[in-house]
Amino acid sequence: MTHTSSPVSSAELDEIYAFAIDLGKRAGKLLLDTVEKRIDGGSAGDSALLASEEKDSSVDIVTQTDEDVEAFIRTEIQSKYPSHKFLGEETYAKGSSRDYIIDSHPTWCVDPLDGTVNYTHLFPMFCVSIAFIHNHVPQIGIIHAPLQNQLFTSCTGRGAWLNQTHRLPLLQKPSIPPLPANAPSGCIFACEWGKDRRDTADGNMYRKVESFLNMAAEVGGREGRGGMVHGVRSLGSATLDLAYTAMGAFDIWWEGGCWEWDVAAGIAILQEAGGLVTTANPPEDPDTAPIEDVRLGSRLYLAIRPAGPSETETGREGQIRTVREVWRRVRNLDYSRPGS
Ligand code: IPD
């Protein structure tokens, strides 16, 4: 039996949500300030903001900004909620364990700067990503992409929002659009190249590329696997990919290799908006296998946007049909890890 910790009351959750929104706004402002300094400044101190160190490879980097913003967020959370646990990308990266360590306790799971490579190039798709997880469920998600002026927020039962004014998904009237009858055709497919660039025959990079080809190719191509998606997109930030899926801008997001802090807030927001999140890896029988709920630490994610009903199926049926169509076209990825 899974251990559960004592419930958080609705009033407490409201308070935590308000705190998290304010924290996300302030952390995003810190990111923006560093960008402004880089654009206007040029002093030795400002260029230190960009100094990056490699983690697992030359595309897996941490900048001083990642460190500073994580320290700010950690201090704020620890002084307001000293009994809550904190898991931040940069703190975790410094340890030697790669185990999945989130348990039933109230836990903050934070990526201070998702899209670090984008940030270093001033490609605007970078953000701070903050999730509050309790009893294994991401209950609050906050994503702030300050250069885009986009703040995504959600809390269980309180809806998912863009800039606190527009409910997600954005298209709701007269109803949320159904998924295309011939999905993945007609869908925007989002995916990421990720950081595993090993030139290994049939390794993750090759399996990803083969999957992308299958999704993109004309119907009838690729020995029947051609999906002829409407478009293929990569934002370079997993949590923003999920937020854009919650908006309805992306129909499908498929990715392997990122970590819980890259997805926790995005999953909270997408699920609250009515999206479906499951595993990237196709089961043995993609046509009939049950659709398992995403496991946060699995490093394998397939997300489908919120969908309304069509004349022939419910929104949920459309999402499940789309999951199976993706599974028929993608390869299994290998990102195993202990404890997830
Ligand atoms: C990365 C981004 C990217 C994903 C990588 C992540 P970071 O996060 O989310 O989209 O493909 O796997 O590590 O390093 O920029 O915080």
TrEMBL record:
Q: What protein family is recorded?
A: Belongs to the inositol monophosphatase superfamily.
Q: Which SUPFAM superfamilies match?
A: Carbohydrate phosphatase
Q: Which UniProt keywords apply?
A: Hydrolase, Magnesium, Metal-binding, Quinate metabolism
Its UniProt pathway annotation is:
Polyol metabolism; myo-inositol biosynthesis; myo-inositol from D-glucose 6-phosphate: step 2/2
List the cofactors.
Mg(2+)
| Record keyword Metal-binding present | yes
Q: Name one GO biological process term.
A: signal transduction
Organism lineage string: Eukaryota, Fungi, Dikarya, Ascomycota, Pezizomycotina
Q: According to its UniProt record, which reaction does this protein catalyse? A: a myo-inositol phosphate + H2O = myo-inositol + phosphate
**Could you cite one Gene Ontology molecular function of this protein?**
metal ion binding
**One Pfam assignment:** Inositol_P
EC numbers on record: 3.1.3.25
Name of the protein this chain belongs to? Inositol-1-monophosphatase
For whether the record's keyword set contains Metal-binding, the answer is yes
- InterPro entries the UniProt entry points to: IMPase (IPR033942), Inositol_monoP_metal-BS (IPR020583), Inositol_monophosphatase-like (IPR000760), Inositol_monophosphatase_CS (IPR020550)
Name the domain of life. Eukaryota
**Positions bound to Mg(2+):** 89, 111, 113-114, 262
Supply the source organism for this entry.
Answer: Polytolypa hystricis (strain UAMH7299)
